[in-house]
Specification:
- The chain is of the alpha/beta class.
- It folds into two domains: 5-181, NAD(P)-binding Rossmann-like Domain (Rossmann fold), CATH 3.40.50.720; 185-252, N-(1-d-carboxylethyl)-l-norvaline Dehydrogenase, domain 2.
- The protein has helices spanning 12-23, 35-44, 66-70, 85-92, 117-124, 142-146, 160-170, 183-205, 210-231, 241-252, and strands spanning 5-8, 28-31, 46-47, 51-55, 60-63, 75-78, 101-104, 109-110, 115-116, 133-137, 151-157, 175-180.
- The strands form three sheets. An eight-stranded mixed beta sheet has the order 5-2-1-6-7-10-11-12, sandwiched between helices. A two-stranded antiparallel ribbon has the order 3-4.
- α4 (85-92) packs parallel to α5, α8 (183-205) packs antiparallel against α9 (210-231) and α8 packs parallel to α10 (241-252).
- It is globular.
- The relative contact order is 0.11.
- This is Glycerol-3-phosphate dehydrogenase NAD-dependent N-terminal domain-containing protein.
- Pfam families: NAD_Gly3P_dh_C (PF07479), NAD_Gly3P_dh_N (PF01210).
- Residues 6-161 form the Glycerol-3-phosphate dehydrogenase NAD-dependent N-terminal domain.
Length: 255
């Protein structure tokens, strides 16, 4: 039987990842919050709220029932806001089985705990599911990706078999996926880059100029790296897609 996937969260990013998987001929279930939302998405054949111009490919189904969505899945991708990740994991965890890959595509930290997304997964899931926990981060503007424009990302996890399987399922000619063992660094980079992006945006609003923006981004990346090193992350992670790549995309994008 071929690999199958489930996306938790009919968000812009969740829908985009579901479309990518279906285009790769991976059967995928998109888990909606309610039956009404699932019916709307199914009947329209698209996510009119977030991606109105992108039709669902063949192989992408929508449901609001966790049990049916997860029954045959090898890869479970959670793509919800960081303050909603824990409650979504609680909703689905009874239907997860050992051997499944549980991949967080959510950037940020949980408030008020300041827990990283992989830590929230470890908090909520039994130990036998921990080897399958992975995270995804990088310069990933969903609108560009769903339009088929070139992009790259990185999947980090402690189990190489899990990261490589997720990589193989998501990789395409237009979407290159790298793997890493530095879960801490990838997650910190994805969260901290938002602080730099806010500062860069303020500079744009002040018409500070491109020189000032470049200097701010450079020094911001240096601070991100220092914090990562202090926390135990690999400094090279911050020079890669999850760090520099995401900073550049976020600070320069008009999307």
């Amino acid at each position: 039987m071929s690999d199958q996937a489930t996306i938790i969260g009919a968000t812009t990013w969740g829908t985009t990842l579901g479309i990518l998987l279906a285009q790769n001929e991976v059967p995928v279930n998109l888990l909606a919050r309610t039956e009404a939302e699932a019916q709307t998405l199914s009947s329209q054949g698209r996510n009119a709220r977030f991606l109105p111009d992108s039709l669902f490919p063949e192989g992408l189904s929508v449901t609001s029932e966790p049990e049916s969505a997860l029954q045959q899945s090898d890869l479970v991708i959670i793509a919800v806001p960081s303050d909603r990740l824990r409650e979504n994991v609680q909703r689905i965890k009874a239907h997860l089985k050992p051997g499944m890959i549980v991949l967080s595509a959510t950037k940020g930290l949980e408030l008020p705990t300041a827990r990283r997304m992989s830590q929230v997964l470890e908090d909520e899931l039994p130990a036998e599911l921990h080897p399958g926990i992975c995270v995804l981060s990088g310069p990933n503007l969903a609108k560009e990706i769903v339009e088929g424009k070139l992009a790259s990302t990185v999947i980090a996890g402690r189990n190489p078999e899990a990261t490589q399987k997720a990589q193989n399922m998501l990789m395409s000619a237009n979407f290159r996926v790298y793997t890493s063992a530095d879960v801490l660094g990838v997650e910190l980079a994805g969260a901290l880059k938002n602080i730099v992006a806010l500062g860069a945006g303020i500079g744009d609003g002040m018409d500070a100029g491109e020189n000032a923006k470049a200097a701010f981004i450079t020094r911001g990346l240096a601070e991100m790296t220092r914090l990562g090193i202090a926390a135990g992350a690999d400094p090279l992670t911050f020079a890669g897609l999850a760090g520099l790549g995401d900073v550049v995309a976020t600070c320069s994008s008009r999307l």
